Amino acid sequence: MTEASLPLKMTILSQTGNLPGVRKEAERICGELGFDDTATGAVMLSVDEALTNIIRHCYHGREDQRIDIEFTTTGQPPEALRIVLRDYGKFVDPATIKSRDLADVRPGGLGVHIINNCMDHVQYAPAEGGGTVLTLIKRIPSGAKR
């Protein structure tokens, strides 16, 4: 991994058209950190689901709202990838966020379930000044080529 790669900070507008660029950066970073294809896919899916939920539920589809994204690592040498997503909408208490029943087969409603199952740690916190800070952590596999 090159020193210039991380931390990576980006700000996007709440438009679904911006998601492919964020996924591409997540994929690149995962590759640099030595994640295999399965772990890389889990990270990309989690970031995509989290951003989609912010756009849909926090900003109610408005396309002119700010989302800050930061990719960093934790530990020395890097032990995990940390992704922080910050929105500026109303904070939602994580206890009120419910995925729909898995037996209810239809599109949508499983983003939180997917994120929780794909990532090693997920934390929602109120952001200073309003909004939510969502922190996603995925451990770097032992023996990963870094």
Describe the structure.
- The chain is α+β, with helices and mostly antiparallel strands and 146 residues long.
- The chain has a single domain (8-139), classed as Histidine kinase-like ATPase, C-terminal domain (Heat Shock Protein 90), CATH 3.30.565.10.
- 31% of the residues lie in helices and 25% in strands.
- It contains three helices and five strands, in the order βααββαββ.
- The chain has a five-stranded antiparallel β-sheet with strand order 1-2-3-5-4, covered by helices on one side.
- Strand 4 (121-126) and strand 5 (132-139) form a beta hairpin.
- The model has no long low-confidence stretch (mean pLDDT 88).
Features:
146 residues; alpha+beta; Heat Shock Protein 90; 5-stranded antiparallel beta sheet; 3 helices; 5 strands; 31% helix; 25% strand
**Arrangement of strands in the largest sheet:** 1-2-3-5-4
Low-confidence parts: none
CATH class: Alpha Beta
Helix content: 25-40%
- Number of self-contained structural domains: 1
**Classification by helices and strands:** alpha+beta
Report the strand count.
5
